[in-house]
Amino acid sequence: MPTSQLDLIQLSQDYSVIEKALYYLEGEFKRQPNLEEVASRAGYSPHHFQRVFTRWVGISPKRFLQFITKEHAKYMLGESRRVLDAAIQSGLSGPGRLHDLFVTCEAVTPGEFKNKGLGLLIEYGLYPTPFGECLAASTGKGICHLAFVEPGNHQDALQDLKSSWPNAEISEKTGALTDFMERLFVFEARQEGPVHLHLWGTNFQIKVWEALLRIPPGCLLSYQNIGEALGNRNKSRAVGSALARNPVALIIPCHRVIRSMGSFGDYRWGAVRKKAIVGWELARVGA
Questions:
Q1: Which domain, by its residues, includes 60?
Q2: Is 254 labeled as catalytic in the residue annotation?
Q3: Within this chain, do residues 37 and 176 fall inside the same structural domain, yes or no?
């Protein structure tokens, strides 16, 4: 097994500790609990917790907490708006995804949309990530599904995939997307070539997802910002609905869209996980 895959397994195991800490910090944020208190809630000694946390994200818990405060989020909203303008005007898709990842998005044909995957073969597998285990799946045209899996909930995650493509043939193929997952998370793996997505949704949902692909790591935008980018600032609610139906976590970065007042808001795979992803990305771009 390559070192990069071992690293992902370790980071995935670390996430359960991080999640406990973030749940506690979220509830006790106003008190600003110290390292000893947070470590105790996570079930670790302060020294071991600091080591696990730093291995997971590369910075201290205190610094990470600064990244996921409402005040910092509001600052990032102001800074990021210009980035989206530039990306959209230049026609870029997924600029600077930390490791030269380029994403292309292909919508299903009207016939495929109507048939919900009839005649299509989808292969899936379970993979470790820095934010817990995920189920990833692909068709012959590209990645069609990526969703986080709660411990012990493999069958629920698989059923979610099946309900998205109810008429497709779905087959497990362990390890088929290992290289792709390394490319997504392990930055020394810099394979050439784009990542292809194969998605089905309404025309508006596809437009929203394509707009999200233009948000670089370390940037945060509001639902209203996305509506404005699509020509209608009053479509915030419709944008939120499209985000909730995002079939490909992380690649289509719905986690980078927050509320205009700086609160992170809901997330299909959990509000705490959303904060973890945002903070993890900010740490890597040095925001």
A1: 3-65
A2: yes
A3: no
